[in-house]
Write a structure and sequence with these properties.
There is one protein chain. The protein is α/β, with parallel strands linked by helices. It has helices at 4-12, 20-28, 41-46, 60-63, 73-76, 92-102, 114-120, 135-142; strands at 16-18, 33-37, 53-54, 82-86, 107-111. The protein has eight helices and five strands. The protein has a five-stranded parallel beta sheet. The radius of gyration is 16 Å and the shape is globular. It starts with a helix and ends in a 15-residue tail after the last helix.
Length: 157
């Protein structure tokens, strides 16, 4: 049986990653790229990288293809475009980027450390109104909230 972390490690053999500061350079250079945030809509609305498109991981595959309620034309037509996949910490985005490669996306990468790392590097995150979210507030939103019952039995107290 594979754990979530095992899946990430396996997928990283095929998925390239980009650090937040490198992504900021690409954005500053006006590089044509699609920023794809695969977090849930509530996560995205709280804070996200300006200009990113929200397609939750749970509907990624039909969003990447024509003929579905979830189809996102901007995403379907990006198979030959630079795509940076984003999540909270850079793990879900690895799985999403791997899946997208299987679906024919040629230039897809994952944002290493996700929006958490983006915020740690003091780069701006925006809310749904387009307002910049304070870095400390973003830290609080992005902090893990693992409950004791979610820990492995040997670590539960």
């Amino acid at each position: 049986m594979k754990t979530f972390q095992n899946l990430i490690v396996d997928c990283l053999k095929a998925v390239d990653e980009v650090f937040p500061w490198d992504l900021q350079e690409l954005i500053d250079a006006k590089q044509s790229l699609l920023l794809l945030d695969t977090r849930e809509p509530c996560e995205f609305s709280a804070l996200h990288i300006k200009g990113s498109v929200n397609v939750p991981r749970g509907i990624l595959e039909p969003a990447c293809d024509y003929g579905y309620d979830e189809t996102v034309p901007e995403l379907v037509t990006a198979r030959d475009q630079d795509v940076i996949v984003i999540c909270r910490s850079g793990k879900r985005s690895v799985l999403a980027a791997y899946t997208m490669q299987l679906m024919g996306y040629q230039f897809v990468k994952s944002l290493k450390t996700g929006v958490k790392g983006w915020n740690d590097f003091e780069l701006p995150l925006h809310d749904t109104r387009g307002q910049v979210v304070d870095g400390d507030e973003a830290d609080a939103i992005l902090a893990p909230n693992v409950q004791p019952q979610q820990m492995p039995p040997q670590l539960q107290k």
